[in-house]
Amino acid sequence: MSEVNISEAVTSPVVAHELKESSVFALRSSEFKARLERHQQLERAQEIRDSLLQVARRIEAPAKKLEQSLTSYLLLRQVRDSESGEPIVGMFDREIFGHPQTLLTAFQQQYATHKHDVAQVQEFALLVLEIERLAGGLSDHTSAAWRNYTRTLKAQWEVDQRLFINLAHQEGQRKVQQHYSDLVAQFTNISRGLPKTADEVEAVLAVHEKLCQQRDALNLDVPEEVKLFLKAVAGQGATLDMLTSNVCNWLAKEDDPTRYRIKRL
Hints:
The chain is mostly helical. It folds into 3 domains: about 5-155, no CATH class; about 155-220; about 220-265, no CATH class. The protein has helices at about 5-75, 95, 100-115, 120-155, 160-165, 175-190, 200-215, 225-235, 245-255. The termini are far apart.
């Protein structure tokens, strides 16, 4: 065998082995690079997800409050005052409540530029603040109108509590007064917050109608001088000059005079 043949016979397996190792390394290197790229893509996707979740979390509460305030506002715009015929809630005033659409447009422009990093831009923070301000202002505006409306309803059936209590002993009045008190408690409970549906408004008005009827069933329509005497008795006490003949006659007919005592101060 020649010297060249001997050299080739010795080196060829070595070269083949080196080429094989080089090929394996290249393959593994390519696989590693592909895995690294996929990992980086997953990390970026996670960052995008976290950024969008941050946007959603920051805007969720004020947006929900605004939705609830707007729902009540639009609902109560349909409720009319029985005397004036006007909506019980005044018109939405942009000079008072602002122009959130402008900030929303600015935010949308920033979103088109920054995409998933939009949570960091100033326009997003301003938009959240504007939504919170708008929701709070609209809620206050609507709540004030609702409270005023329910006060006008109450004025139609509210009674003087001193007179109410003083007449509770009359025959048949205790049960009537208890039913009235239960209805008052029910009205107070269901009218405490802003209604969100037409059914809730109807429920308030239904109890209001019952209270008007129950108010008529209460025996509170007494002569004025009797009313003054009974109120005084329930308060600091009545003076002798308030015990007129008309009062004495009414007490003898409608009350029990023996329940009263004259005391010197």
